[in-house]
Amino acid sequence: MTKSNSFALVFSILVVVIAVVFWYHYSPQNLTLRFHPYVGDKSLILHKKDYKNPGGTGNFIIRDFQLFISNIVLNSSYSHIKEPESYHLVRFDGDTSFAQIVIPEIDIKNLAQISFGIGVDKKANGTITISGDLDPNSRMAWNWQVGYKFLLLEGMLTIDNEQLPLVYHIGFDESYTELHFEITNEKLSNDKVIDFKIDLLRLFKKDTLASAGLVSQQSKQSNDEYIDMSEMSHVKFAPDDVKAIATGFHDFISIL
Question: Which domain, by its residues, includes 199?
Answer without folding.
Answer: 3-255
